[in-house]
């Protein structure tokens, strides 16, 4: 897994390099400028024009990186227009040093233009630039943007140039991934190490392609830290994949019971139960209302349908528990929630199942998550459970607004798993897995085509199928989340992000498994 760091950890390493290794800050800044230049040059090869670059510099060290980068671009034949904020007396020492070097060069080079920002009109000097470099505020900045930064970022976002952020996009909180207004980058060259806020929330949306710029500090200096956030890599999934024994039989291969579906929402249940089979579970049984069982029989084959008597209510009630009790004991994993509905009788039945069978492994999704609202989850033992809500469902579960959740996703997720002992798969772009050991594992597969009805139900079944084989909640969550989204990525090549559906993802799950396994086979 790829470790992600907090701004305080990055700053500690910088201080260590400067104070104990005696690497001058100007050397680190020069290394940063070289990395920025080389990354921009490589990533803009597709541009028809890339000979004029506009750079907006702040007053701190991030601005200093911009001034040093301007010199690198000028030395390689670019025309450079620089807009900077503040007077010399307001600049950090290293920023000031690079500003003065660039100013001296500008006296003898007509291709270097430097202008102090006085009003929004000054941004007209960037209007014809092929590339714009955001070097306003670094990773130490927190809180919403104030003027003039607010107006500058808004204007820069409207420009059509290829946009590059130095270290982080201005406006983004590098720890929380939150921003009210943020520079919208095509490329972010982050310096030293990966900051966690670049990979979720507004960072995920606005960083574009993310590249790491080595500023001369060996990676081993970061080994002193124990990060809590990681990016999931393909080999992480390959290494935990279930291994099929030669003498495997259908029940030893994993038994999944899906309690889902109702007369109003039959499709969710079918997709969950099917997905479990497609990732290797040996047996999949669907508990479904008897009065609408034809809907299930008509659309499902390999999955066994256990129809319970609902007296034409078309949904689950506590009266059905005696009928499905043996199935609950039989199962290795119970997936509960998709399409069950939110009738009060159903909600009571869900809570009773979770209470009675608290030693079982559960995947709790959708309407079953809703049944735990209003603090009801605090009365249950969820240590053998994986909850799979999307952002709105999770916010409702813990009693806050979605807008509040977005301000500090990592903290809210960690607090929940710390309190409950459950695993939390917070569905979104990207999906984040929170573990009871306070780690947050960020998925690296997936695309916007997943934003459709049914894809979450497929994810529930995928995780359940893997859990029935692996018997390990963390491994199952990682494998399920990654393979589900990898299947979606493979579908993009066939149908684009517009054309595939949840059913297509189910069909593509075996291909995603094959793709992953083939990628690590020796030639």
Architecture overview:
The protein has helices spanning 7-19, 25-43, 61-75, 93-106, 149-158, 201-206, 234-240, 266-278, 293-299, 321-330, 344-356, 367-370, 391-398, 402-407, 409-420, 455-470, 473-499, 502-519; strands at residues 2-4, 52-57, 79-84, 112-116, 131-135, 162-166, 187-191, 209-213, 229-231, 255-259, 283-289, 304-308, 333-336, 361-364, 385-387, 423-426, 432-434, 440-442. With 523 residues, it is of the alpha/beta class. The chain has 2 domains: 2-228, YjeF N-terminal domain (Rossmann fold, 3-Layer(aba) Sandwich), CATH 3.40.50; 234-518, UDP-N-acetylmuramoyl-L-alanine:D-glutamate ligase (3-Layer(aba) Sandwich), CATH 3.40.1190. The strands form 2 sheets. It has an 11-stranded mixed β-sheet with strand order 1-9-18-17-16-15-14-13-10-11-12, sandwiched between helices. A 7-stranded parallel β-sheet has the order 4-3-2-5-6-7-8, with helices on one face. The longest helix is centred in the C-terminal third of the chain and has 27 residues, at 473-499.
């Amino acid at each position: 897994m790829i470790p992600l760091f907090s701004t305080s950890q990055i700053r500690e390493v910088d201080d260590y390099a400067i104070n104990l290794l005696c690497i001058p800050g100007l050397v680190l800044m020069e290394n940063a400028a070289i990395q920025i230049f080389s990354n921009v040059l490589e990533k803009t090869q597709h541009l028809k024009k890339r000979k004029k670059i506009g750079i907006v510099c702040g007053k701190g060290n991030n601005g200093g990186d911009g001034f040093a980068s301007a010199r690198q671009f000028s030395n390689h034949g670019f025309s450079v227009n620089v807009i900077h904020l503040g007077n010399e007396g307001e600049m950090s020492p290293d920023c000031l040093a690079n500003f003065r070097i660039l100013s001296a060069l500008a006296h003898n080079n007509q291709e270097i233009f430097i202008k102090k920002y006085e009003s929004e009109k000054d941004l007209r000097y960037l209007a014809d630039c092929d590339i714009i470099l955001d070097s306003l505020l670094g990773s130490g900045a927190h809180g919403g943007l104030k003027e003039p930064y607010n107006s500058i970022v808004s204007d820069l976002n409207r420009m059509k140039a290829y946009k590059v952020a130095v270290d982080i996009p201005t406006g983004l909180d590098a720890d929380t991934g939150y921003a009210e207004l943020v520079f919208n980058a095509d490329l972010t060259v982050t310096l030293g190490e990966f900051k966690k806020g670049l990979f979720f929330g507004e960072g995920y949306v606005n960083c574009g392609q993310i590249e790491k710029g080595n500023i001369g500090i060996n990676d081993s200096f970061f080994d002193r830290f124990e990060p809590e956030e990681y990016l999931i890599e393909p080999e992480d999934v390959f290494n935990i994949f279930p291994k099929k024994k030669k003498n495997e039989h259908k029940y030893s291969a994993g038994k999944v019971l899906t309690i889902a579906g109702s007369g109003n929402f039959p499709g969710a249940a079918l997709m969950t139960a099917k997905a479990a089979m497609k990732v290797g579970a040996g047996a999949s049984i669907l508990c479904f209302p008897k009065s609408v069982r034809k809907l299930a029989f008509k659309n499902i084959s390999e999955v066994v349908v256990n129809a319970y008597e609902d007296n034409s209510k078309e949904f689950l009630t506590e009266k059905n528990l005696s009928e499905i009790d043996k199935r609950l004991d039989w199962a290795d994993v119970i997936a509960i929630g998709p399409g069950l509905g939110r009738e009060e009788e159903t909600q009571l039945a869900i809570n009773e199942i979770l209470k009675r069978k608290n030693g079982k492994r559960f995947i709790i999704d959708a309407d079953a998550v809703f049944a735990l609202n209003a603090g009801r989850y605090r009365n249950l033992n969820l240590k053998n459970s994986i909850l799979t809500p999307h952002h709105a469902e999770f916010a409702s579960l813990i009693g806050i607004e979605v807008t509040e959740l977005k301000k500090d996703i990592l903290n809210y997720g960690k607090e929940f798993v710390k309190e409950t002992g459950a695993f939390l798969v917070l569905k979104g772009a990207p999906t984040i897995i929170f573990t009871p050991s306070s780690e947050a594992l960020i998925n690296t597969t997936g695309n916007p085509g997943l934003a459709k009805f049914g894809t979450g139900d497929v994810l529930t079944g995928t995780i359940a199928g893997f859990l029935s084989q692996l018997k390990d909640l963390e491994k199952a969550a990682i494998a399920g989340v990654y393979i589900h989204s990898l299947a979606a990525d493979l579908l993009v090549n066939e149908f684009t992000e517009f054309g595939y559906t949840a059913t297509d993802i189910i069909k593509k799950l075996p291909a995603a498994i094959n793709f992953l396994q083939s990628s690590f086979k020796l030639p």
